Amino acid sequence: MTQQLRTHAPILALLGSLAGCTSAPNKKGSPDSPTSTVDSAVTVGDSGRDSAVADSTHQADSVSDTGRDSAGDTGTVVTPGPWIALSCGDGDCCAIARDLKLACWGADDEGQLEDMPGGTFTQVNVSYPGSCALDGAGSITCWPSESDYPIPAGIFAEVRAVARGYGCALDSGGVLECWQGPQGDGYTPAPNGVPFAHLAGGRGVQGALTADGTPTCWGQEEYFTRASGWRTLTPTASGFTAMVCGTDHCCVLDADGYATCWGGDYTLTVEPAHGQFSSLSAGDNSTCGVVLDGSEADCWGYGVGGSIPAPAGDRWLNYEVAQACGLTVSGNILCLDGAIGDPPDPP
């Protein structure tokens, strides 16, 4: 049954196809075993987040922070923290400090921490086992290193890590460029050379929003080209403002903060308590959204569910479903489940 994430109606979820397909109803079934990825890129800006993806990542996918006011209305004094951006993947997290230096923590089984670059950066996106960042000049750095598939040169505005040796970016004119090895059958290639307004990335599927806010997807076709069983089609509507993708699903936000998700229905097995969000992040087969006032993060999907209140006197800026870590508007990072540990001291 189709559902939509609205406070006055059940969740509408359209489950995915590639661009140009019409929507179809979702029927619950037994999805494949979940795999891991996350979309939650963040860019340093007025709010320390990607203004195009209010992501995942996004970038989101933590994405989309739209005019939330500052914390402190409870009277609790919150000490400003050192962080302005956060992105988490399957095994590790990275954060950007106020001086734009990068810190990463968590798993190092593929060289995620060992190969972490020095320097200063304005955007970071963590997947598994690859991460990418943009410096102030718009140059891309990705790690662990993968010499077989060179990173493109140029000036870029947005970047997503998909896996080791595979990523996508929008250049300063919004034109898409993805770099990767051969993907084989059952994989729709990225529409390189096409302009987009916002980029979303997951290990199974990737996507982007056009200038009028229409979502487009590419990647593993099994998640997007069949409107049967527990999968339906990518929405053809326009006007969406932000987008995130996980392993087998994507979600978008409209201008009012309502979310629409499609793909694997792991992400729809738990209905969130709230209907409007300022940001989203997409993980394996689950999604989290920060409510409009930042007081809570709602999570739904495979293995997650419920609301996570922000720390006293503070508010969530983005909340990373992959590692249950959140960045607050005061610049503090809190990781709740203990699996990855607390962030290190700023570099």
CATH topology: Methylamine Dehydrogenase, Chain H
Q: How would a textbook summarize the main sheet?
A: 4 strands, antiparallel
Outline, from the CA principal axes?
A: globular
- The parts where pLDDT drops under 50 for at least 5 residues are 1-38, 41-74
Mean pLDDT across every amino acid position: 75
What is the rounded distance between the termini?
49 Å
Helicity level: under 10%
Q: What is the CATH architecture annotation?
A: 7 Propeller
Which secondary-structure class do the elements indicate? Answer: mainly beta
CATH superfamily: Regulator of chromosome condensation 1/beta-lactamase-inhibitor protein II
Number of strands: 24
Strand line-up of the largest beta sheet: 1-5-6-7
Number of alpha- plus pi-helical segments: 0
Question: Can you identify the CATH class?
Answer: Mainly Beta
What series of H and E elements makes up the topology? Answer: EEEEEEEEEEEEEEEEEEEEEEEE
Structural domains: how many: 1
Strand content: 25-35%
As a whole number of angstroms, the C-alpha radius of gyration is 18 Å
Describe the structure concisely.
The protein has 347 residues and is mainly β. It is built from no helices and 24 strands.
List keywords for this structure.
347 residues; mainly beta; Methylamine Dehydrogenase, Chain H; 4-stranded antiparallel sheet
What's the SSE blueprint?
Layout: E1 42-43, E2 83-88, E3 92-97, E4 102-106, E5 123-126, E6 131-134, E7 140-143, E8 156-163, E9 166-171, E10 176-179, E11 187-188, E12 198-201, E13 205-209, E14 215-220, E15 240-245, E16 249-254, E17 259-263, E18 277-282, E19 286-291, E20 296-301, E21 304-309, E22 316-320, E23 325-328, E24 333-335
Antiparallel strand pairs: 1-5, 2-3, 3-4, 5-6, 6-7, 8-9, 9-10, 11-14, 12-13, 13-14, 15-16, 16-17, 18-19, 19-20, 20-21, 22-23, 23-24
